[in-house]
């Protein structure tokens, strides 16, 4: 703009030295502004670099929490879906309620047992046996889903744990010896030195062979499974008496 002003008019009013000084000042101001602009650009670049570095650090520190959060979200979703698709347990629950009543009936009949009332006890025991068979049938239906999509059933129905393998299926956690052997039955001793009780299961004659267990690191169930199936021909059930530290192997084959 200064160059476009006529030099004669400016010289007349201000003089040549004033114009030179003004140009010098403008040059210095322009240089200062350029330096400040470059400084601001440098500061902005440094700030962006610092923010980017902080963002990367935050992202690395937050990533594990985000992963855990996503995992918990998926687990929660799977749990909600499992609850929404929970199998119908009404049949099994009904059988369990009937079992409680049948077990009480057997105990009551035992108290009143004599030679003239043995038929009452036998009828109560056969009714209980029928319910045991129905319970096992219902548990077999649920064993597959309990080991895959509905593991919570293993907690709600502990018997399902014994359905996971052929050997463990032999363990009958709710069975008791007196539910299969009449009170006036006496034990005999077989060639292996085990007490043998004569009883029945539904309409079939069975034998209950007694095995002693020990309180060691190995559980009573593990001891029973190690001792009984291999030594008792035709063993189809194992009853464990934890109070007496004994187990009974049930078989239809005479163990003598």
Tell me about this structure:
- This protein is of the alpha+beta class and 256 residues long.
- It has 6 helices and 5 strands, in the order H-H-H-H-H-E-E-E-H-E-E.
- Helix content is 56%, strand content 12%.
- It has a 5-stranded antiparallel β-sheet with strand order 1-2-3-5-4, with helices on both faces.
- Strand 4 (235-241) and strand 5 (246-251) form a beta hairpin.
Oligomer: single chain
Strand content: 5-15%
Give the H and E element order. Answer: HHHHHEEEHEE
Compute the number of helices: 6
Overall strand count: 5
Quickly give the structural class. alpha+beta
What percent of the residues sit in helical stretches (DSSP H or I)? Answer: 55-70%
Question: Which helices and strands appear, and what pairs or packs with what?
Answer:
Layout (H helix, E strand, L loop, with lengths): L6 H7 L2 H69 L5 H22 L6 H29 L6 H4 L31 E2 L5 E7 L2 E9 L7 H12 L3 E7 L4 E6 L5
Helix pairs in contact: 3-4
Quick overview of this protein structure:
This protein has 256 residues and is an alpha+beta fold. The chain has helices at 7-13, 16-84, 90-111, 118-146, 153-156, 220-231; strands at residues 188-189, 195-201, 204-212, 235-241, 246-251.
Key phrases:
6 helices, 256 residues, rod-shaped, 56% helix, alpha+beta, 5-stranded antiparallel beta sheet
